[in-house]
Amino acid sequence: MTRLKLQPVMHGMAGILFLFNVMGAYKLPKPNFLLAAFYLLLGIGSLVFPFIMRKLKNVSSANTLMRCLQVLVLMISALFFLSHIQPFVALFQIIMALTLAYTTYAEYKMFQPAFMELTNQCIILPTLFSTKSISWKDLNNVILRDDVFTIDFKNNKVLQLEVLQDIDQEKMTAINDYCRGRLV
After folding, report:
1. Is the pTM of this model over 0.85?
2. Which phi and psi (to 5°) does residue 118 adopt?
3. What angle do CA 85, 90, 96 make, to 5 degrees?
4. Under DSSP, is residue 148 helix (H, G, I), strand (E, B) or coil?
5. Domains of the chain by range and CATH?
């Protein structure tokens, strides 16, 4: 649930943008009332969605679907405003669409289970776009305690990762012994 804290803000920003699009579609020389009504519904839907989303069974899929809809509508909006000779508004729509597309991808990756891998050569950590390898020779200490995996680097940096999976005491001891063996 801690991953969901900023979603109301991001959906709210998209909703407010769609409400501004209502004004843009309404204030044209020949107003498009159907498009203004669509933007109004989508804006209100984007503002309300984060509060309804938590009650859904598959939060990740619903969030991704809503984000993709927002991105698609923003790209189509860019074409609409460009066709009505408003290039700055169209450019802003494209920038917001790309920002929301990146947010969609980042949220999708956050909802995916992340696994850390301990190998004989290194520790492999997942990142947003790929993986990061940390060599054992660059580390002072590695320990798993109280659902926190702590990596202490030789350059005085410390990385602490929360372990979401329940690990019993026997496995925790085996992991700590393996890490101590790799450090020596």
Report:
1. no
2. -105, 115
3. 170
4. strand
5. 2-111 (no CATH), 117-183 (2.30.29)
Angle of helix 87-111 versus helix 7-26 axis, rounded to 10: 160
17: its two tokens: 């943008």
Using alpha carbons, select from 37, 36, 39 the residue that is nearest to residue 27. 36
Q: Enumerate the β-bridge partners of residue 162.
A: 148
Q: Write down how long the chain is.
A: 184
**Is the C-alpha dihedral spanning 50, 55, 59, 62 positive or negative?**
negative
Report residue 160: phi and psi, to 5°: -120, 130
Helix (H) or strand (E) holding 144: strand 139-145
pLDDT in tens, 18-35: 888 888 777 777 777 888
CB 134 within 8 A of CB 126: no
Residue range 55-87, pLDDT digits in tens: 877 777 888 888 889 899 989 888 888 888 888
